[in-house]
Structures are given as C-alpha cells and as structure tokens.
Amino acid sequence: MDQSESSNVTSGEQVLYGLLFSEESASQKKQSMSESLAYLQELNSFHIDRLQSEPRSLYDQKQSINEEIKSLAFSNYKTFIRTAQCSKDIYADFSIIDQKLDELMHKIPPFQQESENFTKNIHSINAIRRSTNQTLQKHNQLLELLEISQVMETCVRNEYYEEALDLANYVKRLDKKYSSSIPLVQQITNDANKFLNLMLNQLLQQLKTNIQFNQCLKIISLIRRLDVYTESELRIKFLQLRDVWLNALLQRIPNTDPYSHVTKTIEELRIHLFDIITQYKALFSDDETVYSSSSAVNQDKLLSTILLSSSKDLNESKLFYCWLQSKIRQFLCILETDVKLGIGTRLDSLLSQSMYFGLAFSRVGLDFRALMMPVFERIVLDKIAEQVNQANAKFNESLIKLNWIELCGEKSRLQDFFDSKPTSSIINPPLKLLDFHPLAIYLNTLLQCFNETRLCLPLSMHSKVLSLIKASFRDMSLYVFNYEKKVSFDKNEKEMFAQFLSYLAHVLIPFVQKCIFSLFPLNQIQKVYGISQSEMDHFKQMAMLDPTDLLIELSHLIPQAKADTQEISLDEKNEKHTAEPTLHEENVETVDDNRSQIVEESKPILEEF
C-alpha cells in the first residue's frame, strides 16, 4: 500500500484488521496488510445485500481458481516437474555455492596476507635486481676486492711482506669506512688480520735462525709496522727468540769430551753472542747512551746506574743487561760443569780462551773476565786440594812399603847432580830426596800439580794454596809420628829414619817453599796489592813454611840442619825472582839394587822448573 492509499484507511479498519489477523506473526502481517486493508475498505463501500452475497462470491472465486489451478497443473505438469527439479538443482547448487563462499571467505585473509607479502617481496626483488645490476656494472672493482685475501695470502707465503703490508693498510681504510654497513668488508678485514698473524709468525720464526744484520733490521722494521708489540715487548720478544736460537746452537755441541764441549761453547758464544749484541744495539739505538764503550774500571758504576735508575729508557735497557747477565751465568755454569767432568792438563788453555772471550766483549762495554776469576779459583783450588790429598795418600802408602833395611849403609850417588849450581831461572829439585821414595813421590805429585796449574794461579790464591800445603805437611807429620810409634827400629834404621826426617824438614819443605814463591812472586804481590815494605816483611814471615810449626809432632826427632842443607833455603834473590819458571815432574820408580838405573830414571826431574 502506497502513501495515498494508507492515508485513506481509517483507524477502525486498522482495528478490525488487527482483530482478524491477531494470530499471524508480525512478518506475515506486514506482507498482507496492504491487500487486507484495501479489501476491508472495499467491503465498507458495499450494501448489505452485497455483503451477504460476498461469501458466496468469494467461494465461487475460490472454486474457479482451484479449477484453473488443476487445469493448469494437468496441462503443465511436466513443466512443474522440471521446475521442481530445477529448483531442487538450483537449491543444491546454491548450497554448494554457499559452502564455497564460506571457504572463500576463510581463504581471503591468508590470501590478502600473501598478497601483501608478495608485494613486499616484489619490492625486495626489485631492490636486489637493482643491486645485481649495480654489481654487474662494478664487477671488476668487486673482483679486485674479493681477491685481496687471496693475493695477501700469496704475498705472505712468498715473503713479499712489503706488498702484504700495503694491502693490509688498504683493508684498514676500507674497514674504517664500510665495516659497519657492508659485511663483506668485515670478512675481508678478518682474513687480512689472519694473514697478518701468519706473517708475524713467519717473521718471528726467522729470528730463531742464523740471520745477518740486514735481514734482522728488515724483520724488526716489518714487525714495528705491524704495530703488534710495544717497544718493551718488542725488545723482550727479540731477546727471547735470539736466545732460543743461541741455546739451540749450544745444545747441538757434542758433550762427549768436556774440553771440546766448553771450547766450542766459548767459540759459539763469542761469535754469535757478539752478533746479537751488535744487532740489538743497532735496532734499539737508545741504549747507546747506556752501553757506551766504558772502561773496565767503570763497569760497576755503569751496572749500578742501570739497576737503580727509574727512567723509561734505562728501564728498557735493563731488559738487555739482565739478558746478558743470564747468558754470562749460563756460560759460567757450563764452564764449571765441564771442568768438573775433567779436562785433563789443559786448564791453562781453557783459561786463556775464556779470558780472551771475556776481553772480546770489552768492545761493547761488557768485559766479564772478573766474573770468571772466582770460577777458575774454585776449580784450581779444588784441583790443588785433590792433588795434595793424592800426594799425602801416595806418601802414606809408600812409607808403609818402605824397607829401611835396604836403605841402611847406602848413600846417594846423585850428589854430583845435586851439587851442580843452579841458574837464576831454573829450580832443580833436590835429588837427594830419591834416597827416600815417599818424599820423592810426594814431591813429584806436588810438582805435577804445580805444572798443571802454574799458569792458572792468580795472586789472590796465595793464602789458600799456602794453607793447603801447610795442612798437608801437618797431616804428613801426624802420620809419620804415628808410624814411628808402630814400627821398631834398630840403631842403623833409627839413623836412616832421622835422616828421613831431616830431609823432610830441611830439604823437602824449603824446596816446596821455593816453588810457592816462584808461583806467587812476592814482589808482584807487593806491587799489585800495594803493600809497604814494613808490611811486606811481616807478610814474608807469615808466608814462610816453618818446619818447627808444620812438624810439631816430630820436632824432638828431627836433627839439626847441616851446612849443605842451607843451599835449599830461599835466598833474597830467588824471592824477588820475576820470571815464572816451568814445573816438570817424572814419576819416581821404586828403588832397586841397581842405583845407576835410578840415576837414569831421575834425570827428567832436573828439567826446567
């Protein structure tokens, strides 16, 4: 019902419509309201007769319509069937469509998300494409960058270190500009650092080899350019590596022969240690102010200045000086160890080589000869003590085997040799000691000891050697005293024993005194130590071997010295004798009945002392 018709409907009609269709739902009322109100309005316009006949008229219309419907149904039943089937199919299709639409609605959000992702991917692909095109355009430059690592590795392995450092500097500049934004640059930087480490290891390994100064200077320059170590660390590293190489050289020296080992050690250290010092002082030139060519007198002052100074330069120079001290201590340890193992009679040769070794380093302000003197003093003193003990042992053994009966009634036939006047430079051993083999054997052993050590005896050892000799004579006196108590002598044997003691006190001891003064000239002691004349007289008294003091147990048995024994005493001329005579010895054979054979065998003992 349109707007004009609804305006003509009265409220009574609407009430009536509501009463008639009160059971219908609101949706049905809304659909039939317009037609029903129109029909009610039309009924209001009929007369009563028409209204009475209206039900019949409506019934007839209903029947007519039903008849028409039946006729239509019979005439078009196939169409209705097809229509129903179509409706059914359409309904089924619509159901499928509805299901598909539901599925489509569920798939639309993922599809939308994928579409958005695809759009984003399109943008990234476009960016990659633009980047790829740009990469293609700069292919040659990028290829050069990518080959930096390979080229640098080749340079390092082929020892083209200058080119490798140039590439490393270029990589550093790239790293400062692009490392935060370009990962490839960071990777190239890491590779460059790895090959720089390889280069550093190769350079350090070269310092462990026998390299010349020019090569050493180049290596240190390259390490400095790498900027890995501070100056102090670089000095320590240099000394460590050169020390490894030097120790390897020393370890390769055969140690089967101690003398050969120590002499070759001296030779190796003299050559290579001097080279290392020269290289160090050239590479780290600031040490020149510390290690000047100072004299040996100023070495102690120089050492105290270095060790007590707190400045940076001197503190760095301590590294080198401490390293040198360690090498000197190592050499002294090798020297003392090899000498203890035994070098025979070549101690003087070893001393001269060692002194030359220490003197050679005075050119670099490192004269360490004074450090070797205590070592040689201990060695020589131990050797003398051993020989003196051996002399005492041989004397004791020979005294036990001595046959006093054979000695009775016999006199020395060597007096002519003994009475020959000695020259000022020759000290002849007293041949009359051959009458008593224990004294001759004892003297021979001492002379052998003096011959082996005479060139190695510093003046400072005078008191120590003198103490050893005095202790030896005191031990000898005690042993002879005990021997005299155990052995019973007849009259002739007592005379021979008294002569034996006389030779011991008035021949052997003065001759040993003369040997000691020859080994340690008193005028040289006075000159070196600055002893005054009055003090020197007192020193001479202290340095004398007094038989009454040394043979105190035998003092009551020793006869008075005869006039001819005064020839053995030390005169003033021999005390001031400056020439250092040589000492020779020859083992004395056991005396037999043939004294002429003894003469021939004793001739070598007359050689130059």
Q: Tally of extended strands?
A: 0
Helix-strand category: mainly alpha
Helix content: over 70%
- Helix and strand run: HHHHHHHHHHHHHHHHHHHHHHHHHH
Task: Identify the overall geometry.
Answer: rod-shaped
Number of helices: 26
- What is the straight-line distance between the termini? 167 Å
| Unreliable segments of 5+ consecutive residues | 1-7, 287-314, 411-424, 563-609
* Major sheet description: none
Folded structure, characterized:
- With 609 residues, the protein is mostly helical.
- Helices cover 73% and strands 0% of the residues.
- The protein has 26 helices and no strands.
- It has helices at 3-8, 11-20, 26-44, 48-75, 77-137, 139-146, 148-157, 161-178, 183-206, 213-226, 231-251, 258-283, 299-308, 312-341, 347-360, 369-401, 404-407, 415-419, 437-453, 462-486, 491-519, 522-529, 533-543, 547-550, 572-575, 595-602.
- Helix 19 packs parallel to helix 21.
- The longest helix has 61 residues, at 77-137.
- The N and C termini lie far apart (167 Å).
- 22% of the residues are buried.
- Mean pLDDT is 76; it is low at 1-7, 287-314, 411-424 and 563-609.
Question: Layout of SSEs?
Answer:
Layout: H1 3-8, H2 11-20, H3 26-44, H4 48-75, H5 77-137, H6 139-146, H7 148-157, H8 161-178, H9 183-206, H10 213-226, H11 231-251, H12 258-283, H13 299-308, H14 312-341, H15 347-360, H16 369-401, H17 404-407, H18 415-419, H19 437-453, H20 462-486, H21 491-519, H22 522-529, H23 533-543, H24 547-550, H25 572-575, H26 595-602
